[in-house]
Amino acid sequence: MKKLIFKKFYLDHAFFFLYVAFSVTLIVWVIQAVNFLDIVSEDGHSFRIYFFYSLLNLPKILSRVLPFIFFISLFYIIVKYENHNELIVFWTIGIKKIKFINEVVKLSLFYIFVQLVFTSYIVPTSQDKARSFIRSSQLEFFPSLFKEKKFIDTVDGLTIFIGKKNKDGSFKNIFLKDQISETESQIIFSKNGYIVNNQNNKNYLELSNGKIINNNGDKSTVLSFNKTSFNLSNYSTKTTTFPKVQEISTKILLSCVVSLTNINIIKIDNKIFNKYFACNAKNSNGMKQEIFKRLVLPFYLPLLSLIASIMVINSKDSYNYRRFQFFLFFIGTSIIIFSEVSVRYTSMSNFLVLFFSCMPIIFFITFYLFLLNKLKFLK
Predict the structure, then answer these.
(1) Domain spans in the chain, listed from the N-terminal domain onward
(2) What pLDDT shows up at residue 263?
(3) Global pTM?
(4) Quick check: 343 and 292 in contact, CB under 8 A?
């Protein structure tokens, strides 16, 4: 009987958790997806790249909102059980309140595992995969980059100015500056032009009636042309293509931090680090923060479950029940905010890393001892 009612409690929490997680994640994802439209409108990537890049941000969103959703769903289910007199069933069949609280804390261990899998493996992998789409893609929406009477330098090494953009997609009074190297550049003026896409899916700018100025150091040559083609497929966007710390695997981050900390014990092998990632003291602060977010923050979940389960020590018939609800909800959200804020301070020193890493345990023991004392007093 006891197993059955706990099973029902777990299922009710799981269904509500999944419902809220799906809803909140979807809302945040839609908002972010709108912001990611710059990938197409400003950077010239295709809608296929935009779709996959946006989709691969879902795990990151879910992992960020999971602690709050876990606390909200657990808090809601316990309050719902109390309001519907379902908690009385637990006490009637002989389940003590401390037993109920311990079971709720055990439930949080499963969510710790889920969160650790997300933060340490799924999220970095999906973020790196999303960046790889940008890194390996070509600019397929050049027309979206060309705007009237505005210098565009989104494309790396190329500056574009269009005097007028016609409705048929052609351009008038075109200025191009191709920075070939530090000392060599090419400037093109053209009265007319339009973009074509050949059979090899390469973009060319067909220009007519213009001049080409080649600059090489102090030397310049000027050539006039009636028609010429400018290959746009050789250029890439300035969109950041190298991985951020959030996209580096947990194994590499830990290896790097350990090697920097114990420089005389472990020899640094640069081969284990991503070719886009520099393992050095300059990046150590960001790596510490990222490791803290991935491996320490999930351990706030048992504390949040404990705070939510404290609701059982007070019944709905109590005079201050509603105030007690708000107080516990405030405490829980404050803990979540504290855990997020503490991340930025972990880069200051190793002592602060250790201090804030111990905070979930310290908070948990403090609240648990308070709870034991409160239950003893109620008896």
Answers:
(1) 2-136+243-378, 145-231
(2) 47
(3) 0.74
(4) yes
